[in-house]
Amino acid sequence: MSVPLTLLGLLERGPSHGYDLKRDYDAYFGRGRQLRYSQVYATLSRLARDGKAIAGPVEQGAGPERRRYVITDEGVADVQRWLAEPAPPEPDLQSELFAKVVLALMLGRPAGGFLDAQRAAHLQRMRELTALKQGGEPLDVLLADLTIYRLEADLRWIDHTAARLDLLQRAVQR
Amino acid sequence: MDRPHSGPAGPAPTRGATVTAHLPGPADPAAAERTTANIVEARDLVLSFGSTPALCGASLAVRRGEIVAVMGPSGSGKSTLLHCLAGILVPDEGEVWYGGQRLGGLSDDSRSALRRDQFGFVFQSGQLVPELAAEENVALPLLLSGIRRRPAMEAARKWFATLGLDGLERRRSGELSGGQAQRVALARGLVAGPQVLFADEPTGALDSVSGELVMDLLTAAAREHGTTVILVTHDARVAAYADREVVVRDGKVGTLNGSRP
Questions:
Q1: From CA B234, how far away is CA B242, in angstroms rounded?
Q2: What is the CATH number of the domain that holds B213?
Q3: Does A85 touch chain B (CB under 8 A)?
Q4: Testing the interface with A: which of B78, B234, B257, B259 to mutate, by most A Cβ within 10 A?
Q5: Among the three residues A28, A52, A79, which one is the final residue of a domain in this structure?
Q6: Is the pLDDT of residue A32 over 80?
């Protein structure tokens, strides 16, 4: 999963401090692997350097110095492009699929369209692997089956998620 | 694991030439031309069961020799679509074309003859006739077409080796495993040399290994004989045998990549 694009996606909801972005990232996507503050601020600095976000002035307060970040049009376009593109259909995609669906729902983007695109990419890969199995050596067939069954698990999750998008939409609304 | 053998050599005893002769000519030559590349085409099908809509403007075009998987959630209308394409159900609105001919213009008898001579069917549970031996079940479409018993049985027996069923010719359905029974049903669906094989969840009642064997055999036989296959399934591993997939949702047909269904 792309941490920079996920943070950028969270930033698209509205101007945010690094602290808020880290808190939301950990809550929605961390699942026991929280981001370090240093990683968050380094990522935000790079996004600002690359024109994907703008860093506001330092805000003085009782606590540590804080900056508010705002996404740019270029950053929005990056998020849009990332969400619209299906991930390469390989095993162990769970975190990326999950992040894209949640962000699409948060941002009011067509999560169903993303799921359809991902479903098509998965089926295409399964079709290629099924063709490879025809007349393949037993060990090649075994390996192809391993990937096919893992892709199938993703597909079942995709179907299940597609059927519950309304419910999920309510769960991630701010 | 068993692998598909090549199908039996030579054509089936008949290929329904007399049925084609009964089909009325197309009223619209342009329409016939459009459908030349498409062996089966559904246009804007609408069908309700009482007040429950099953199809709400479903369209699908299937090219000759293509293997198409029809997917979709339970109750989406995919089996209903299959039955309309096969002329088993008549839509309330819309048209089904087969080889440039409109099914709605056919009499019930002609539609029955079309199903018997041009189409093959495989369903989730083989639906073999329990009183008949496996070879008689396979020969059934030929016998119903008026083929004499001896050539019909000879044609049927050729499929047993092809589908790995050697030695099971005289068994009744109760003496076959689920996978064996489904392969017998597959042989029955293919024995008459159909132009189109309609398969509704053909592996739905099988374990994964038996299901894979049935799909290996089904697609190998179809590709060897140039048979068009329209395959309803909710199983992505089964759909992966097809050339492409379409999705039925709420009675309409869509594709996953936005192309025309």
A1: 13
A2: 3.40.50.300
A3: no
A4: B257
A5: A79
A6: no
- Give helix then strand counts, H and E, for chain A: 8, 3
Token pair of B29 as six digits: 């030559």
Q: Does B176 touch chain A (CB under 8 A)?
A: no
B171: amino acid identity, one letter = R
- Do A95 and A118 share a domain, yes or no? yes
A162, A115 in Cβ contact below 8 A? yes
Q: How far apart are CA B165 and CA B157, in angstroms?
A: 9
Chain A residues in contact with B1 by the CB 8 A cut-off are: 138, 141
Looking at the structure, do residues A75 and A103 belong to the same domain, yes or no? no
- Report helix angle A3-12 to A18-25, nearest 10: 110
**Residue B3 pLDDT greater than 50, yes or no:** no
- The ipTM of this complex is 0.73
pLDDT digits (tens, 9 = 90+) for B128-148: 999 999 999 999 999 998 999
CATH of the domain at A71: 1.10.10.10
Cβ of B242 and A126 within 8 Å?
no
CB contact under 8 A, A130 and B241: yes
B44: phi > 0 → left, psi -120 to 50 → alpha, else beta; which?
left
Q: Residue A23's CB: how many other CB atoms inside 10 A? A: 17
Cβ–Cβ below 8 Å for A117 and B245:
no
Is the overall model pTM greater than 0.90, yes or no? Answer: no
